[in-house]
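User: What would this chain look like folded?
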Amino acid sequence: MPVPRRKGRGFWVMMTFNLFVCVLMCVSWTLRHGKNGNPKIRIPSERFWKRQILSESFWNKEQQRLDFIHSPIVSSVLSSDSLIELPDWLNDTRPLNPCEPDYRVATQVLDYNTLPQLFRDFLLHMRCRTHPMLINQLHVCDQRPFLLLVVKSLVPHFERRQAIRETWGRAGVLANQTVATVFLLGNTMSTDHFPDLLGMLGHEAKLHGDLLQWDYRDTFFNLTLKEVLFLEWFGTHCPQAQYILKGDDDVFVNTLKIIDFLEGLPEAKAKDLFIGDVISNAGPHRNRKLKYFIPESVFVGLYPPYAGGGGYLYSGDVALRLYNASQQVVLYPIDDVYTGMCLKKLGLAPENHSGFKTFDIDEKYRSNYCIYRSLMLVHSRTPQEMLTIWPWIVNPELDCL
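Assistant: Here's the prediction, encoded as structure tokens.
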């Protein structure tokens, strides 16, 4: 039966349209794929990437590079077999081995030669995050600790570690909760005028079973590295710990107060817990005489909120997430600021708690035992002062009502 003239014309129009769509799809597929059929995704590099305002400061520039690489679109493309044309500003001339000294830093940080030697050493090696472990404790978390006390220490600080073991860092059962303690150590170098104490350290490790040591140069600027190495160790050897109190070896901690606080936490708040003595709206110090000096050639901008590095309390769940976040944040030479940067990457912010006094308390209250019972952490105290204060915490006969 013959097709009516009007319907026949509509049929051929529809067929022509469908053929046009097919041709467009084929051309589009060809442009996006190579001869072998593999995807060929071309990221614009000229006009488009001129919108990217590159920082002149070395750390900021390195972080921009890392943010680009870890952006969802680019990271998915990099994980495939796609061919990518990266923008010119991402050209990387660094050594393939991240633990080789990165001597290009000297040409990219304008005042590099005027910086303190330890700062220069940090910049040369800031890409290296892998260091062999010299002393490990494989069974320190076998009892699934409720609270893991993590203390940043130096090899020669035997007296401080022993005072902590005899007071607030005593491992075992406290207030019906399991507590474990580890001390974090790097390596001491003769170039930093440290004597050879490895024999004594080996004896201490066997005697107490609470030392963790990595083979890197233990300096102020490498405290960030100590943080990242601990987070990696935690994820491997102690992920079952519920909470972590991390502090220096010259702080005094009211462990009973902390356990009492943690036991009363609602479950929803416990997961994202990170509290301490929070510093907000801070920025880098530009005075070269200060310990925390950071030149504009290295970093510009404000710091995110961060808890003072003397000590802070956080959940094991946050610790696991912090390690993952740290892989997307360039190492920074101030460890507590760096932790704040990692928290920001997670979309979290530290919460201020009045029980943390990382800048000490008024001198007139320092001999008042009731003050220490009301606090969680005070910085700083000598080993002798720790041994004096701890009985004030555990002695039930002392009444503060």
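The radius of gyration is 28 Å. If you want, I can go into more detail on any region.
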